[in-house]
Amino acid sequence: MASASAILKNGSVYNGLVDIMLVLGIDENTGLRPVDEIEKFTTKEIFDNLYYQDFEAPVLAAITGNKAYYFQPTLWEDPHYPPAPDDLHSADVKHFQYRPRTQSLGSKIKKRSGISRSVSSQLGHQRRLSNKRTLPIPAPDLPVSEEMLNSITTFCFPDNARAYRQKPENVVHFLVFTDISGKKTFATCITFYKPMIIWQDTEFNIHVDLDTSGNRGEKSDLVCYLPQCCVLISQHPYYYSLKECLSCLVDHIERDVEEMYSFIKDFTYILCLTPVPPSGNVQIEFMLFNLPITLPPSEWPDKPVINVPLHLVFLIFSVEDVLKVITAMLTEEKLTFVSSNYALLTVVMESFLYFILPFNWRYSYVPIITDSSLDFLEAVGAFMMGCHSKHLSVVKQINDIVVVNIDDGTVRINQSDYNNDSNHTPDRNCSRLPSMPKHSVNLFKHHFSRNKYQRDLADVSRPFPLKFEEEKNHNMKQIQIFNGEISFACLELMVNLFRGVIGELKIDVRHFNKVGFLETVSEDCRPFYEKILPTSIFRAFLEDRLNEKQDYWSELELKSRPVAKRMSLSGERFQLPTRSRKPLNRHVSVSCFSVFNRQEFETFYLPSLTTVNMYVRRCIESITSRIECSQDYTARCSYRYLRAMFRAAAGNYLQALEDLFNLPTGFTCLQPKDLIRGMIDLLGEKDKEELYKQKGYKQQLERLLNEDETVKRLPIKLDKQCPDHDLYLDEFLDIVSLHDMSTDYDISTTLFDALKTINYVDQYTYEIFDLCYMENQKNCLTCLASLTDDILGTDENILQISPLIKTDYGTGRVGLTDKRLFFLKDGSNAFKELIRLHRIARLEKTQLHSFLKAVDALTIQNEDGSIKFSIWLKEDRNCWFLLIQEMMCGRRVAIATKDHSVTHQAAQNVLLIDAVVRSGLFEQTAHYNRINDSAESLCFYSRYVAEERHILPSNTLSALQKRVDPSQGERQRTTVEALLYTPGFNTDEEEIPPRLWCGMGDKKIRIFDASTFLLEANHITTKNNVITFASVGEEQVWAGALGIYIIDTKTMTTSKTLTDHRDLVSSIYLTDDKRYAFSASLDAVIIKWEIPSLKTLQVLHLEDKLCLRSLKLADDKLWCSTWEGIHVFNETGTWLTKLDFKSIPNKDNKTQEIECFEITPNELWAGLRRKGMILIWDRESKELKTTIRLGARGISTLVLSNDKMWVGTKQGEIHIYRAKEHKLWKKLTAHHDAIRSMCRAEDRYILSGACSKDGKVAIWSQTLSVDSGSYENTQL
């Protein structure tokens, strides 16, 4: 880890715009150093051929925020840099912004016209070998390596430096450096030309002097222009902003060339103290020599800022060629970009890197290679390199590289027969590149056919601007608009190409079903994906998806998912993971521009730089003022981050850490770990102790301080191979989940017990079991292929197919699905439904006699005997009996308990039972001698029905509408900690369905579409369990955990996080006008929020109140529930009274604590957590009126609906009381564990969620008078 002093430098900010300024070139101190060996020329020949030779251009100076080094003629440090505070303070601010030619704030460098260097004396000791640029003495304490200092001349002057008779135009180009760890550094270079006088003395030694007079001097003197280059090196790709800065600098230098280094030092000093904005909607503007410079933010924390005009690529290339380059990058080809303009090389290559985001290029990336580095183009492996078009003849000779010619706007692949084939065409030449899916390509092309990225076209009707600043702002805004549209179109392309990946992921076992994914795309698209899926660029993308990374790709995929769902041929019907059904084309491309919002920026103006201390203090004051006044939550987060940077620079480390730790979840990736560690190292022991005491900080500190710098990458499984070793329980659970055999923990462990030898499943047993399982799947698919599509329902699964057998309907095959038995006649393959499973009244093992022998068979009959038949199954009879019985009982339980997930689980049990029985026939398997016991142990629903556990009381049956499983697909069921129902609504783009939000005990929020009760594919992961919800308008849901997660109801993603609470948020309550919200945390802190701006209006600390469990607002008072009573406060936090229950006798000496409470129009009801007792107070007098004893272990939740109070108990029962009479109306039983949460769904339904042993949600009708009929059609 870097030392704290190296991270926190005096007079600089951590996120400074510029790290260092380098000056390179030829001046009076370097003399003329020919690139070619000196022995080839005499000094007279050099002088006579001055304009036809290449000269070395070494590093002249290096300037940072606190150091200035000069390398010529020898290394020395400027003792007057940085400027002294007194000197700067006495200077007028205006002088710092604009410099007249006669004034300079920096220390002047003495004119060195008397110091000259002869060529002979210089080069006698420094002979240039190969392309190596030598640095006389390495400079200490610079933020660049010695290697970069030695090599940067090659890139700043790729064509070497020359002398010119006439002054050439100043030119800008851009560089990208990549270190050994893959970290990139960005450089912007401007080359300008200074007037010099070249003369010879009597001994023919050549001298160089700066021409300041404009007079020619001696006739023998040569007046020429020699190049110098200023290079700004930054950690941030602000190419065009730094280009603007350098243009301003050179303009000042050319007006007063003698004061060049004074300008450069002041210039660098300003840029090193200028912070870059964090991702968000705040841009920074600062004044540089009277020129306003704007720094835009990036869109996302992990997305680089776009500071180049992306539309230039589409002015150079056709859309087809752009797609070819993108394909070449995604398939990891060797790419060489060629142009006669060095600046365009970097701009175009950087643009293509933006186009493929979130995919990141992971190979060699060199935008500019020099003449001596052309052999790099023959390197093995993928790369992206750029070179000058003068080397095109060399490039053409290198086979198998993709050549992107920027000058011609063409893309082709060099092939061995290229020079011999005169009939080649660009399309034929790129035939090696696979074609993208047509629909995705057509949407991409359609966007660019509508938009012509020509600024001149848009400006035809615009008056000519008369002010430079007006024109500059207009151009910048136009480029931002173009960049926003283009980046969105490219992101839409990436989403459309790879949205199908999400459906083939199993997060828990880190598996991607490659075969299944390829089955979802059409035949003509498969070559494209087959070439991309093995690449490392795709693997990195896959790793992000398996890590459930929430980024710009996932956000757009979620926003467009409803449209894609409607267009998908497969739909979203519930189906088994092992579904025996033909693969369907689920690859869908949709236009997402309906959700594109052009970003609007808020501008923060940096104050003028006088002294560092005053500048930093004024920045902190200005930012603090913005935080207090801003109505925009995202902007306040950006300001908080900026304030942390300035506080760190000022040495206020505790305050800086507080700002960084208070950043919401979406901004935590902005936390600079090295800066935080450096600040903690500099804290005193007392400050560290104070920091660790603050709630919420300790975990963050431990995570940052103990985090290994090298991230351990977990392996990704791409296939489903059988293990080559014995399996213990944990690995066995992973394998059966990976192979989609079982996702239920209890069933998986039962399967393990059925197959195990002592405490493991041996390799052979599992291989045979897996083989039998897959064989059954293959047989089912073969049968399915022989049926027409309309015979079975889209949500029906074939589970078993018999061999050729005899039945009462002739010879054929019998099939079992999760809904019915059917018969396929031999020969004609005619389909006949035998019986629906829930109609089977008698399933009996029998023996039927033929003229040869008795045959084992099954006889099946319905209730009234109208359907009765036998199937002659022989030795398979007992197995089929178990299979039919388990599926039949599963259907019976599903209908009786109105729980559709039971059908899914029973179907999985059937598949496992069949595989256990078949594998047990092999002698070497562990369960060979206990086949029946192993199979019967998996018959869960057969035992469930035999024990009559599926029979519910009549009251429960009349009220229960449906049961759903929010832990569906998870290995273990978890507690339903909180519930919320939100009604549907319509937007201009789509219809948002009603939803049921479930806060689960595994730190996830699972969401149901309440119109169909299908579980949404995506869920929200939080750092702690969500224990309370609140619906805030139509577009937001607030979820209380360790902080408040603000969820966008359209995308079902966390858009913001409020982190002001230091403990679990236990309750969120809205005012009647929906303008304000109160949130309470367990540490007795109440915060009042302004909902539109998310600003904290008031913070109340309730002294000596422990464990604040719940909060409600009534009669303009805050009613706060703690373990020992209900406390009443006014809205300013003044304590008014307490509702306690000390007068109640405690016969069993159990601690009496309040778990929940509810307010009725005249009363307040509260339930005790360890007693089945309800306390009722009069709301007006605050007197305890009565108590109600339920005979339960405890009360867990209360919900008032209409005139009924629904009481959830820890025995899994719901007691419904008439609120006015305090009398029991109904008692409902449908959970096998304690009820943990309840909520209302408008005035029609009540929803209850249970603890982990049950883990399900029940939907209850409030009327209880009308039966809902079929549970499968229940909607909210």
User: Could you tell me how far the N terminus lies from the C terminus, measured between alpha carbons in angstroms?
Assistant: 56 Å
Instruction: Describe the global form.
Output: globular
**Would you tell me the overall average pLDDT?**
83
Report the C-alpha radius of gyration, rounded: 38 Å
- Per DSSP E runs of 2 or more residues, the count of β-strands stands at 57
Helix content range = 25-40%
The chain-level structural class is alpha+beta
- Strand share of the residues? 25-35%
- Our count of helices gives 34
**Residue runs with pLDDT of under 50 for 5 or more positions:** 1-6, 86-137, 569-585, 1266-1276
The main sheet comes to: 8 strands, antiparallel
Report on the architecture of this protein:
Keywords: WD repeat. This is UDENN domain-containing protein. One of its GO terms (biological process) is regulation of Rab protein signal transduction. By secondary structure, the protein is of the alpha+beta class. It is 29% helix and 25% strand. The chain has 34 helices and 57 strands. The strands form 13 sheets. Strands 1, 2, 3, 4, 5, 6, 7 and 8 form an 8-stranded antiparallel beta sheet that branches. Strands 19, 20, 21, 22, 23, 24, 25 and 26 form an 8-stranded antiparallel beta sheet that branches. Strand 16 (505-506) and strand 17 form a beta hairpin. The protein is globular and about 130 Å long. It starts with a helix and ends in a 15-residue tail after the last strand. Mean pLDDT is 83; it is low at 1-6, 86-137, 569-585 and 1266-1276.
